[in-house]
């Protein structure tokens, strides 16, 4: 467990949840570069998912799929919670998006982008899926 969560981390969380993925990348990259383990890999996992969603917004299906997978993989060691974050739920939402993108293929990336630009929800005939969000958990 992290001793103290830096304020910059919460800034990155807010940027992520506001779909400002590029700014989130910049904020968390600065933390990542200065950190040591175990925080370094934690920051990198969230950072990769942020960059994946940035790629998705630019219709880069391949970049989104690769970085979603890498970010999810890095966060597996931090579940269920870490740094006051519900890592398990964040990973589940990210995995659901990754699976949906893989099943849809690159030819349908524009539909994901269109729906996520106006909502945090993607709906097709087979599923409803939420855009991943980082949720803070209450300390006990």
From TrEMBL:
Gene3D superfamilies: TTHA0068-like. InterPro entries: DUF309, TTHA0068_sf. Pfam families: DUF309. This is DUF309 domain-containing protein. The lineage of its organism: Bacteria, Bacillati, Cyanobacteriota, Cyanophyceae, Oscillatoriophycideae.
